[in-house]
């Protein structure tokens, strides 16, 4: 479905921040990208969404979605794709909500930017999506302002918006890192549910090896812009081939000799 072919990204004229990145994600697959801060995880995700910050450019390789290259899309084609087959959640999706407008009015606007819907239809889609994301009192939430919700609820509203068009792939950049552990596990379970309910593929960026181990079918380990280890979850956790992966595993706290992962 999503196919990175030897992709390199450069910011300015430094050495590549992403080097020869190759990854192919199948339908319904959950892949986790792990690695320390600055290893190129966000760059990999943003490259696929056509959202590299200015100065960043793909200098090598190709990224394809259903066989079609994403490197030469027009603005209109991007708008259709981002509001349809591909969607993205950020660490701070919740904080990107406008503080002085209700969730409902923002949800309606978001839907109507991408799809021709009446306000009433968009309202229905919005609260139903909140409901499906397991948010209680979804109609009340639609009428609320962001400050009236907890951080976890705001983040779930952000995820609901990202899911409203039932994307075939969700690119999630540290979606739970800013949240407390309880909310984190709730959101992790909800994301797993997306695959169950909609068959969504997920590319998950996290520095939390526990989250990666819980969610992902396959784990890629990155450092300094390159993939240094990859394999199915079991293989990575039990037989890491790279020293770097072993270090990463060592850094996870253990309790009575058992690692949390
Ligand atoms: N906007 C930017 N301008 C210049 N360099 C950047 C920018 N964003 C990222 N980089 C470079 O790319 C590297 C990888 O960053 P990033 O993809 O954000 O890593 P990660 O998400 O793994 O923390 C960083 O070390 C930095 O050098
Ligand atoms: Mg990042």
TrEMBL record:
First-listed, main subcellular location of the protein, grouped into a coarse class: membrane
SUPFAM superfamilies tied to this protein: P-loop containing nucleoside triphosphate hydrolases
Gene Ontology molecular function: ATP binding; ATP hydrolysis activity
InterPro entries in alphabetical order: AAA+_ATPase, ABC_Ni/Peptide_Import, ABC_transporter-like_ATP-bd, ABC_transporter-like_CS, P-loop_NTPase
Compartments, as annotated in UniProt: Cell membrane
Domain ABC transporter: 2-249
GO cellular component: plasma membrane
Record membrane topology: Peripheral membrane protein
Keyword Nucleotide-binding: yes
Nucleotide-binding recorded as keyword: yes
Pfam short name (any one): ABC_tran
Keywords: ATP-binding, Cell membrane, Membrane, Nucleotide-binding, Transport
Family: Belongs to the ABC transporter superfamily.
Protein name: Peptide/nickel transport system ATP-binding protein
Originating species: Alkalibaculum bacchi
């Amino acid at each position: 479905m999503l196919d990175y072919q030897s992709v390199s990204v450069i910011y300015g004229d430094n050495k590549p921040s992403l080097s020869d990145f190759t990854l192919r994600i199948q339908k319904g697959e959950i892949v986790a990208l792990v690695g320390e801060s600055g290893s190129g995880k966000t760059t990999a995700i943003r490259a696929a969404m056509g959202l590299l910050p200015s100065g960043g450019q793909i200098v090598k390789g190709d990224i394809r979605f259903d066989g079609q290259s994403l490197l030469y899309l027009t603005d209109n084609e991007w708008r259709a794709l981002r509001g349809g087959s591909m969607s993205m959640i950020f660490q701070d999706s919740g904080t990107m909500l406008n503080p002085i407008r209700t969730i409902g009015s923002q949800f309606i606007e978001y839907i109507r930017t991408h799809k021709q819907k009446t306000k009433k239809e968009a309202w229905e889609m919005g609260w139903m999506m909140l409901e499906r994301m397991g948010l209680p009192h979804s109609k009340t939430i639609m009428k609320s302002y962001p400050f009236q919700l907890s951080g976890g609820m705001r983040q779930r509203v952000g995820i609901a918006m990202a899911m409203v068009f039932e994307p075939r792939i969700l690119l999630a950049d540290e979606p739970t890192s800013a949240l407390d552990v309880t909310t984190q596990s709730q959101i992790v379970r909800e994301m797993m549910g997306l695959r169950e309910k909609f068959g969504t593929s997920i590319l998950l960026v996290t520095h939390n090896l526990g989250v990666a181990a819980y969610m992902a079918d396959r784990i890629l380990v990155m450092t300094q812009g390159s993939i240094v280890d990859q394999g199915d979850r079991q293989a990575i956790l039990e037989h890491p081939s790279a020293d770097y992966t072993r270090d990463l595993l060592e850094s996870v706290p253990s309790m009575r000799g058992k690692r949390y992962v």
